[in-house]
Amino acid sequence: MIGRSTALPLYLSTATLLRVSAEGAATAIVLAVHARTDQAATAGFLQTAMTLPYILSGPVIGHAMDRTPRPRGLALVLTAGYGIAIGLLLLTAGDAPLGFALMIAAVVGCTEPIVVALTSLLPRFVVAERLTRAYGLEASSYNLAAIAGPGLAAGFAAWLGGGGAGIPIVVCAFLGLLALPLLPFRAPTRANRTVHTKQPAQATEATTKADQSAQPEATAQPEAAAPAEQAAAPEGAALPEAAAPAERGVPGERGTSAELTSPAERISPAERVAEAERVAPAEPVSRAEVAPQDEVTAPAEPTSPAEVAPPAGSGPSTGAASVGRGVAGGSGGGGVVLARGVVDVVVGGLTVLVDNRVLRALTAATTLAWLGFGGIAVTAVLLADRIGAAPSAGGQLLATMAVGSLIGSLVCARWLSSRHAETVMLAGLAAFGTALGSLALAPSLPWAMLGFLLAGISEGPVFAATLTLRQRESPPERLGQVNTTGGSLKIGASAVGAALTATFADRIGPVGLVLAIAACQFAGLALGLVILRARRSRL
Fold first, then answer.
1. What is the DSSP string of 47-103?
2. What gap in Å lies between CA 402 and CA 456, rounded to an integer?
3. Other CB atoms closer than 10 Å to residue 304's CB: what's the count?
4. pLDDT in tens, 417-426
5. Contact partners, residue 135, CB within 8 Å, separation at least 6
6. pTM > 0.70: yes or no
7. CA gap 452, 111 in Å, rounded
8. For tag attachment on the chain, is the N or C end more exposed, with fewer CB atoms within 10 Å?
9. pLDDT (tens digit, 9 = 90+) per residue, 360-385?
10. Cβ-based neighbour number of residue 316 at 10 Å
11. SS3 letters across 317-332
12. Which residues contact 56 (CB under 8 A, 6 or more apart)?
């Protein structure tokens, strides 16, 4: 393991290798299937099977990476599983029975989210004042991978035939696996364990005193917290103690916030309740105040009775006692807590995306845009064939678009501010759709490459703005889930788009496909604008 001074360069190198594999996999599969069956559109079904599991596996992996104190082991297992599965899929796609290949593709989809989940670990070794720049470089990492992945697949296909397109994809996956053990991932900090809840001031004080009595060393000097504890906020954003915008939601809609810091030896909920009652016996303690931090992220305003303990006098027992019995398992309470934990893992990130207006607009817009973008790999190969180029030229077109994305991301890394990220995202979608639509008029390969280049330049800022908005608007303890859940929704939409492409490719041809992809970008833009403006009109 290395020190923090070289952690970011090594992280970017490791993550980029894994992303080269992930970004080039679709192109390699299309080229391999086309070489073995002469039916490139069939690869769309494999892409669908490879990406649909992402919808569930993404949030689960993101939740696990957020909460585990030592994520290296989990990352190694998932990366190894991905490398083995993608290698087997590329070896058998087009030759093995379709059902067998679809099962292998599903395993790829269950493990590939680790490539995205690594992004949420940046605050563990990047200080707050450099985090915005780190996210810009992170976007560039994806774009470099998007250049190298399809480019390597196309190059090896031209050299060794379509069956050799997967060689660099598998090699990059295992090179990234070898570098993962060197990264200095630290345990989640106090900023990642913050719980915000609307509660009486006296109950807050009682809980705070209980925490201090149980953990004097951990709470004696909060101002001496490490910079990484504030790393989830970009430049200019409020620190966790002041409630970041994502933690407040819409200004004025949040109640009092209390920070609960887990002790070195975790205190059970029953012990926390007992200590709180000893300090302030007259005030009942709510569920949110006594729940372990790794299990509950309380909303600002409870939406159901189960989310907060009932007030004193409302039933035969106080809220604190009810929580104590639930955690202890009395009257089936343990099953309820377990069920709530499972739901939290699966839908925790989705709840943040739905509740926050900006994230809701971002997710709706980009998910609809990626419904069309899911067919871009197959479309590129078919478009290359239409204009008289070799099928491997489809990989060159995708690599050209990735070059443009890199240019756009590097520009954003220098000039993008979180305050203008919404505008950049919407304007980027408009330009992206326009550039993709122009491909219908491309008469030759050079013109098609120019269109893909312009499309990439437009798409790069969209992705950089997406990462910035997620980091700005998400609660620190949910950032990994938000990243993987948002990515899962986009990839799920991409899977549907790939299946639709495979279904309609013969009917509408490559020109119809690029026009449909462009239309999805404009539809996403319109939906995002409606969501943003609808909220503002009510304020």
1. HHHHHTTHHHHHHHHHHHHHH-S-THHHHHHHHHHHHHHHHHHHHHTTTS-HHHHHH
2. 6
3. 7
4. 778 889 999 9
5. 122, 234, 464, 467, 468, 471
6. no
7. 30
8. C
9. 999 999 999 999 998 998 899 889 98
10. 6
11. CCHHHHHHHHHHCHHH
12. 346, 488
